Each structure stands twice: as structure tokens, then as C-alpha cells.
Amino acid sequence: MTQGDISTLILMAVLVIMSAYFSATETAFSTVNTTRLKTLADKGSKKAERVLNMAENYDKLLSTILVGNNIVNITLSSVATLFFIGILNGDSNTAATVSTVVTTVAVLIFGEISPKSLAKEAPESFAMFSAPILRIFIWVLTPVNFIFSLWKKLLSKIFKVKGDRSVTSDEIITFIDSVEEGGDLDEDESELLRSAVEFSDQEAADILTPRVDIVGVEEDNSKEEIAQVFTDTGYSRLPVYKDSLDNIVGIVHQKDFYDGPRVTAKPLSEIMKAPVYVTPGMKIHDILKLLQKTKSHVSVVTDEFGGTLGIVTMEDILEELVGDIWDEHDEVIEEFTKISEDTYRIKCTADLDEMFELFEIDGEIESDSVTVSGWVMEQIGRIPVEGDKFVSDGLDVTVSSTDGKRVLEITVTRLPEEDDDDEDDD
Which of 162, 274, 344, 383 is most buried when burial is the number of CB atoms within 10 A of its CB? Predict the structure, then answer.
């Protein structure tokens, strides 16, 4: 083997290494975790900051990598063909075949598959390593990148491509699930993050305490009667209404009602605070801001006619983020009580989504109701009475308790899968 052959082999090896570099760089920049890079950049990493700046113009970056990779691979193929022509004493046909086989295998193994696999394992590290070299290639290939940018604009006008690159809440939740499965988040942390993402979608109607469950006092009640309500309920705040709960005129706080160990001598009108009114469709994050602004803890949800639908408290809103908050005066109510393997006794104040999750029922719930009570009334089509039964969504439901105006409790049994199939056939 001559000195020239050795030089050619070295050149071919260099070209394979460059092909591997471009392939690995492409994979690294396409799979890099920008959040992790931003964290590193905020901590002072110049390399991470450089990668982020380059990634902002991904089209220019990608065209540089692809053009460079193609130039390298075409050059490698040409050099290999000339090399094998010399080795095979001028037999160009055989040399072309051997060159194609050898370069294809070499590029696939060493220039594509292996470097891409390695780069995918640590994309941030490789992107930071390759960025300085890539900047040189971007500068060298600027004229070519300019031509490709014009070509892209032309294609965009011809095909009118409109891409929505915004991240949806569903995508964020999917990402949280993936991180949890990877072990970087425990169940409590991931649940808190999911609640935070879904927080902005919740409305007052989704979390309010309904009118029938509101405990209030009339403005004409005696101080003794009001004190008794505070004692019986354990609540720290009570709505004050005139004539009916549809006309809530204020909120009285327990600490304002008492002056030390005794009831205050001030009239109720002086110690109660003006209520904060909200609509049922108001987002709970907006209600939270309103309560913070007005220094209130209770908001009254009104319907289109000005009547009271219910109330939303600061605690209700916080529970949407962190789960149920219990204090020493709260009566802990079990909304789901297991009777047997597939049977539960369920309070109808329970959230409908939670009940469907309990029975592992997937798919969209065809109901406008938020609570189990509303769902039961939708299914029956009237005010339920004890003993009413129906089958829906693979569940056998029996009304076990009512108060004459609404359903209080149901017994639910999950049907076997074959029963679901029979129901669908019907």
C-alpha cells in the first residue's frame, strides 16, 4: 500500500468522523431539553446559553447540519470510489460496487446509527460540545442557508403551512406523567403539578358549596342565636342574609363577633363585611385574585337572576391545588365507602370525575353535571326516590338515600365486562 493510499484512508476516516459529528449534532439539537438548558444558563453556563441561542434559529441550524452531512457523505463516496479503482487496477465497475457497499456500511454504522444513539443518551452535553464547531459551519455555509431560507418561504406561501407550536395543558400533563414514570417525581409532587396545570380551567360552578348546603344567619337574628350557629357549625365565617339566602347582605367573622370571651356589643351591621359577588363561569384563579384584593375569604356565586347559587371560599380554591384541607373542627366525610370488590356506597356530593376514575372508566363523560347528584338526576330524568335503579357507563346504580328534594347517596356496582358488551349490542 502506497503513501497515497494511506493518506486516502485517513481522509476517508476523517470524513466518516465528520458524518458522525453531523448526525449526532442533529439528534442532540432535536431532542435537547430546553428547560434543563435554561436552568444551566441561569446558573451561569455560557455553553448552555450558546446552545439556546443557536436553537432559537433551528431552521438555519438544521440546514447547516444537513448540507454539511450531505457534502461529507458525497465526498466520502467519491473518494472511496477512486480509492477502490486504484486498488482494483482500474476496474471501475467492480470498484463502484465495492465502494457503495463499504461506504454504505461504514456510514450507517459509524456515521448514523452509533453517533445518533450516543447523542440521544446525553443530548444536552453533546449539544454544548458541538456548538462551537457548528458555529463555524453556520458561518461558512451562510450563503447556502440564505438560499434555503428563501426556498422555505416560497414553500410556506405555496402550501400555506400553519403550525401551532404552543404547548397545551394536556401536553404538559402528559409530560408530568412521563417524568413521574421516570422516577423524578413522586405521586404527591406530580399530583400537585397536575392540579396547578388544571387550576386555570376550573370555574366557580365546579367547586361551589351549593345553596342548600349554605349555613347562614338572618340579619334580624339575636346575638344568642348567631352565637349558637357559630358553636354548632364550628365555622369561622357565616353569611348574613335578609329574608332569604338569595339576598346575602354580608359576611360575619367569628373574631369580630366576639370581644374576648363575650359577644361584642356592636350591632351586626357594623361588624359584618360586604360580600364579594362572582358569576358561576368565573375562573377560580380570578376569584382568588379578587378575594386577595378585597381581603375576603368568601365569595357569593349568583345566577343570572341575582339569586344565590352557592358560595366559594378561599379554602375551596386552595383545596383544588393541594387537596382536602381538614382542621380539628371538620367532620371527615368519606365520599367513597367500599362495600365489596366492585361495589361502593357513594355520597352524591362527590365529584363525578373522581367516581369515574374510581371505577377506571375511560373516555369522555357525557354529562353536564359536576357532581354525582347531578349525574343521577340526568340519568333518571326526575327527582330520584329511594330504590330507583339504572345502568349507565358499565355501572349498576341504586339510589339508597334522598331527602325528598335531591339524592344523597347511591350504591354503585361495576358490571362485568361481558355485561357491558351485551348492553352495547342492545
Answer: 344
Q: Are residues 209 and 63 in the same domain?
A: no
Q: Which of 354, 367, 294, 319 minimizes the C-alpha distance to 209?
A: 319
Domain with 26, as residue range(s), is 3-159
141 and 43 share a domain? yes
Question: In this model, does residue 6 exceed pLDDT 80?
Answer: yes
Do residues 155 and 7 both lie within one domain?
yes
Same domain, 288 and 358: no
Residue 362: which residues within 8 A CB-CB, separation 6 or more? Answer: none
**Distance of alpha carbon 414 from alpha carbon 411, whole angstroms:** 10
Can you tell me the mean pLDDT for 156-168? Answer: 65
| pLDDT tens string 10-22 | 888 999 999 999 9
Per residue in 101-128, pLDDT tens?
988 898 899 988 999 999 888 888 889 9
Measured CA to CA, the distance from residue 381 to residue 208 in angstroms comes to 23
Q: How many domains does the chain have?
A: 4
Shared domain check, 177 and 155: no
How many helices and strands, by DSSP H and E, does the chain display?
Answer: 19, 14
